[in-house]
Amino acid sequence: MKLFANTTSPFVRLVRLAIEEKGLSEKVEIQIVDPWADPADFLAANPAGRVPTLITDDGHAIAEAHLILRYLDQIAPDVPIYPAQGLAETLSIAAPALGAAEAATAVIIGRKSAPGFDTDMVGAKRFRTMAEGLARLDANPPRDFAERPDIANIAAITALDYIVFRYPDRNWLADLPVLAAWRERQKGRASVEATMPFI
Question: Which residues belong to the signal peptide in this entry (predicted)?
């Protein structure tokens, strides 16, 4: 399999964390692309030009992180990202984390076309979504990875690390002691360390 990826996208990290936790890293070639440059082989796989995009062993192109995660659960079900037990609770924890990650990327993209994006109505709402998403994770944190990797802790660590990485001018965890302690406990996890965002 081949995964079109970049080194910053939180949606790529969702998939890469799942690949690591499922023990599939040796079976997936990571091809780093600049999605803004529209490389031909990447656009042939995904005309939307979005990472991540997975090419399966039989040549099917699957775009969008959640569709890829669904496929990974099918081919490697022993470590389910969407667990049958406690699924509704797990999804309810993941939801604000995913919303925060979406908002954080929307600001980065918005800045490309509107210099005052951060403080306009849409940008302000996105920052509110980030802060509220992290606050909800503080009030209702996911399981530790050591207990069970799933969409909740994968989404939580992805959102938190991406927001801290992209917006270092704020102390996002200053008033979130539960989430800060949760993040500290995940340090050293091989999948977490191997997939940290960087430029």
Answer: none
Which structural domain, as residue segments, surrounds residue 57? 2-75
Q: Which amino acid is at 18?
A: A
Work out how many domains the chain is built from and give that number.
Answer: 2
Q: Angle, nearest 10°, between helix axes 10-21 and 87-113?
A: 140
The yes-or-no verdict on residue 44 having pLDDT over 90 is yes
Q: Which of 88, 89, 71 is nearest to 80 (CA)?
A: 71
Is residue 145 scored above 90 in pLDDT? yes
Helix count and strand count (H, E) for the chain: 8, 4
Judge contact between 192 and 160, C-beta under 8 A: no
pTM of the model: 0.96
The pair of structure tokens assigned to 96 is 């604000």
109: domain CATH number? 1.20.1050.10
Q: Look up tokens 């997975």; give the residue.
A: 54
- In DSSP terms, which residues pair with 63 in a beta bridge? 53
DSSP line for 122-185: HHHHHHHHHHHHHHHHHHS----TTT---HHHHHHHHHHHHHHHH-TTS-TTTT-HHHHHHHHH
Q: Residue 4, SS3?
A: strand
